[in-house]
Specification:
single chain; 510 residues; mainly beta; 3 domains; nine-stranded mixed beta sheet; 9% helix; binds calcium ion
Length: 510
């Protein structure tokens, strides 16, 4: 919800002319400092009447629940040969109540009557800075998001748990041109872990097609992360076209299953690194729209990395789940035991010892955990999810979490920590839900399905992700890696950071 801090003009202001300014400055430097804004610069009207630069005005905003905060605009003098002017230079916001933590403060400045916002950057058009403000552990943080064509038009300083100062680094708004200011607040999507960026369009014209476009060079606000203390993971997915980032940024590594984005390009890229390195990478992210038309999108997700050993977990924006490919060489039972903490050994009894007799219920821990999520033997419930896993393992064969141990031919998801535990997904007659069986699968080996049956679900090698049922116990050398999935398990605990996605919609001119 957006509430305008009602800052409307009620009184026309007539600034002191430039001649008077020069005279006073010439007389006394001290006088100029004292008078800065207070008498020499234009007023701005904030709600109840003219308020001068340097003088704070108490206001309430939508997030403040009736508590007032104080907004103070400042101006400063820029001298040039033969002339010089006062410019709008900064705005201090103080007394921000705790309820406003996690909000964006959006600043706009106007002249006397035009609806066009004043340009705030002498190097280009910069008219709407906003500051993302959070408080954690009693310490405030603020990030000024700006339009990056100018390489940083705004900054924040004097940040405390209750306020900050937004500085306009290259102001183009002379003080006597500023008549009105609005300050709006909005809840920042994703709270303390959000990406910056306002989701605006990046204009792409025909003349720019077939070249690499910096996502951060047009009207799009910079993509930036804030609120993280440890390494984070970024996954960016373009609906069309190619993405890549600067290969000269130190401290980045590629997420397993994603093409190396460091200087290469791909439709999906994933990388992890420190918040600083990530912001450098996001700043450098480029997009090649070759072959695209209409309105392609780029969805960029930031999420927690977890421990360093978790860096190779891929994120699927389609369902918000994470997938870990454990490149081991084990039987299906070995994978099941590793994921569930069970200790089932093959005893010749191929039936009934996982699901129906409740051995799985002995599980009381999550050997694979990530960011508060309990890992489970992967469940594949859509073609998209199947294709995703197949792509991320590079077409290699892997075990999935399906089994028909309990009832021959009735295939269910076997891990009780999976959200689809014991859900029937296939039987011999038809797929109960989604299944991707290869031709003639599932089958049995030999004439007696009870002797050497194949109760383990395998994704076959190859690029189509088709399924086979296989022996689960190593018979005939059935060893391979397996997939651990994270997300929506009933055993999940609170996540440290929920993934946050911002989608940029591009507009390619016809
Ligand atoms: Ca799943
Ligand atoms: Ca088979």
């Amino acid at each position: 919800m957006k509430t305008i801090l009602d800052l409307t003009s009620r009184k026309k202001f007539h600034p002191i002319n430039q001649k008077s300014i020069k005279v006073l400055l010439g007389c006394s430097f001290l006088a100029a400092l004292i008078g800065l804004g207070a008498t020499l610069a234009a007023n701005i009207n904030i709600n109840s009447g003219p308020v001068e630069f340097g003088q704070g005005v108490a206001q309430t905003v939508s997030c403040s629940e009736g508590e007032t905060l104080t907004i103070t605009p400042h101006s400063s003098f820029t001298n040039v040969e033969g002339d010089g002017s006062f410019y709008l230079s900064s705005v201090t916001v103080a007394g921000i109540p705790a309820a406003c933590s996690g909000n964006d403060f959006i600043f706009s400045f106007y002249g006397e009557s035009s609806n066009t916002k004043l340009n705030l950057d002498s190097r280009g058009t910069q008219d709407t800075p906003y500051v993302y403000f959070t408080v954690a552990d009693g310490v405030g943080s603020a990030s000024a998001f700006t339009k990056p064509a100018s390489g940083g038009a705004f900054s924040t300083s004097d940040v405390s748990a209750t306020g900050f100062t937004l500085t306009i680094l290259h102001s183009a708004a002379t003080a006597d041109s500023v008549y009105k200011m609005t300050l709006e607040t909005r809840v920042n999507v994703g709270g303390a872990t959000s990406l910056g960026g306002d989701g605006g369009d990046v204009p792409i014209t025909n003349s720019l097609l077939n070249v690499n476009l910096a996502l951060t060079s047009a009207s799009q606000d910079i993509l930036e992360i804030s609120g993280y203390r440890n390494d984070v993971r970024i996954v960016a997915v373009a609906s069309c076209g190619l993405l890549f980032i600067d290969d000269a940024i130190p401290g980045l590594s590629t997420v397993l299953g994603y093409q190396d984005p460091l200087g290469l390009s791909a439709t999906e890229i994933g990388f992890v690194g420190s918040p600083t390195a990530i912001n450098q990478a996001l700043d450098s992210m480029m997009y090649d729209p070759t072959g695209c038309s209409g309105s392609p999108t780029i969805a960029t997700t930031v999420s927690d990395t977890g421990s360093s050993s978790d860096a190779n977990i891929a994120f699927n924006p389609e369902n918000g789940h994470y997938y870990q490919w454990v490149e081991d060489s084990v039987t299906w039972l070995g994978a099941f035991n590793a994921i569930t903490g069970s200790s089932i050994s093959y005893s010749g009894n191929l039936r009934g010892d996982i699901i129906s007799t409740g051995l799985n219920s002995s599980r009381n821990s999550c050997p694979y955990s990530f960011n508060g999520l309990c890992g489970y033997f992967a469940t594949v419930t859509t073609a998209e999810e199947n294709a995703y896993i197949n792509q991320k393992v590079g077409g290699q064969q892997v075990w999935l979490g399906g089994s028909d141990r309990s009832s021959q031919g009735s295939w269910v998801w076997a891990d009780d920590r999976a959200p689809e535990y014991n859900v029937l997904f296939s039987n011999y007659s038809a797929s109960a839900t989604y299944a991707a069986w290869n031709g003639n699968e599932p089958n049995c080996y030999g004439s007696d399905c009870g002797a050497f049956n194949e109760p383990a679900l395998q994704m076959l090698a190859g690029d189509n992700g088709l399924w086979n049922n296989f022996s689960e116990n190593g018979w005939e050398d059935h060893y391979m890696g397996y997939i651990v999935e994270y997300g929506d398990s009933p055993a999940d605990s609170a996540v440290t950071y929920a993934p946050v996605t911002r989608t940029i919609t591009l507009a390619i001119a016809p």
